[in-house]
Here is the input.
Amino acid sequence: MSDPLYRRELLRLAADAHGAGRLSAPDATGHAYNPTCGDRVTVDLVFAHGRVSRIAHDTRACVLAQASASILGQSLNGADRAAIEELRNAVASMLDRDTAPPESPFAAFAAFSGAVEFKNRHRCVLLPLDAVLEAFAASEAGEPGGVGSDG
Here is the structure.
């Protein structure tokens, strides 16, 4: 019997762990934490002209957050803040209202369609996106080292 939440392609994304690790000299760092389950994601970004040119993540979380972070590690280069906000909205809509997944290069988020019925797991999928948005906010706020707060 197949588990709708933990599809093979989702497990493969988590195992591939694209972008896993930390950058030695990031322009900005963002953190996201889910107090409900204890998931934590730290994202390091390097920018070029307001767009992500490098990303790394330290994801200490469930398979859903790991897979989501892996998609970002594989496909986020070249994105600006507006594109990331749009992506977050598209993923949230997909999960909340069962709408179509984001288009390329983020079509891999379709692997989370089985999470639609598990509302308590939506935050896990969105956590890496929130960490990226926090890194952008920290950079824009001119925080020392661009590092946002853990929260």
